Amino acid sequence: MGATSFQVRLTDSALNDLHEIDDYWFAHGEPDRGEQYVRNLI
């Protein structure tokens, strides 16, 4: 069975949510955690 490729498009609202998640963890003293969380989602 061959690999299937697909493309994901994030809306402006979704990108804003990701920034807010990152900002939240940064504000709570864990910037690496927020960055890793966002990377995992993407």
Quaternary status? single chain
Q: Structural class, from secondary structure content?
A: mainly alpha
Q: Give the terminus-to-terminus CA distance.
A: 25 Å
Proportion of helical residues: 55-70%
- The low-confidence runs, each spanning 5 or more residues with pLDDT under 50, are none
Count of discrete structural domains: 1
How would you state the average pLDDT, rounded?
Answer: 90
The beta-strand count equals 0
**Beta-strand residue fraction:** under 5%
Order of helices and strands: HH
Q: Overview of this structure, please?
A:
The protein is an all-alpha fold and 42 residues long. It has one domain. Helix content is 64%, strand content 0%. The chain is built from two helices and no strands. The protein has helices at 12-27, 31-41. The radius of gyration is 14 Å and the shape is elongated. The model has no long low-confidence stretch (mean pLDDT 90).
